[in-house]
Amino acid sequence: MKRLLAWWEGRCASSGILRFVDRNLRGIGQVMFQDNPLSGLLFFVAIGWGSYAAGALQVAIGGLVAVLAATLMAQWLRVDKAGLNSGLYGFNAYLTGLALATFMTSSPLLWVYVVFGGAVSWW
Q: Model pTM?
């Protein structure tokens, strides 16, 4: 496992896109206090599968959109790199996106709330 993570870190160091993916996956993993992109991927897949099985795919999409908005906002504001790289700016946004998409009806206004909520929830 350590070799796999070391390989992944090496790839992320040389690619801005992979670093962005890594930050988002770590943000999702931080929901369960896991600073690990593989844990974040597993959590995302599990929530996606549960959402799909329940017929509420907007829940998984809402979480993803919110964590992307938070990470983009944190990068734009040039926050602490160590915190950003460990996913600390994405976990609250992920939970916000999941909650909004769970308790609100699917409408264009929902997605405005998800993007805005994700972008400001880490503050």
A: 0.88
